[in-house]
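User: Sequence in, structure out. Go.
Assistant: Echoing your sequence, followed by the structure tokens.
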Amino acid sequence: MSKEKIANLQRRNFLKSGAALASVTLASGVTLMALSQGAAASADPNIRWGLLIDTNKCPSDCDDCVSACSNEHGWENNGLLTDPQWIRKVTLKDKQTGRENSLPIMCQHCEKPPCVDVCPTGASFKRADGIVLVDRHICIGCRYCMMACPFKARSFVHEKVEGQKSYSPRGKGTVEGCNMCVHKLDAGDGTTACVQACSASGNGAMIFGDLNDENSEISQALANYPSVELRDDLRLNLGVRYSNI
């Protein structure tokens, strides 16, 4: 039996058990189940959303992308180990030359996501358009996906969540991470909060778009300039690429 069939079977059995049938109300008429089902149904299989980040245009003292993500999705990082980090800034240093790069790291939206492979309930899944998500309605908080992720791109919600956004639900005891602002994409915005903030700052370090469209800005940039994937040795075919590292 294939991994996909096993995951689907486990998910069905989990749902039948009744453990995941309780619906969590976030706002009037809004539930985790309704949002997760809608997000999956809205995906276009002809599209693969992706992100290209030019580290030469990403100053070490700028974290506008982090602040924008935090404001858009209602998470805060106050420096505690248990705080969520949907996106974070890191510094890479070449030990031989001393050259440093500052870059944001978030879920890399792998074509073959390890988090999906290890999830026992199917809560971690990949949409038809390449975006990797967590269905919090059936996430049991086992955190296997966090251990499997090579990029430390997921967080666990330890405390009760206040002031949630109805379009981006969060819940205590579940795992979360960058969702490429699916609510904006499905509404036709065609971009993400972090990219908008980066553009507004004047840095213009981020390009977002359809990797399957050879005429898109991101595809043109990838065709004309060298880029790299983080941990390309894992052959995960990431949706996020970096240039000038």
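User: And one key feature?
Assistant: The chain has a mean pLDDT of 88.
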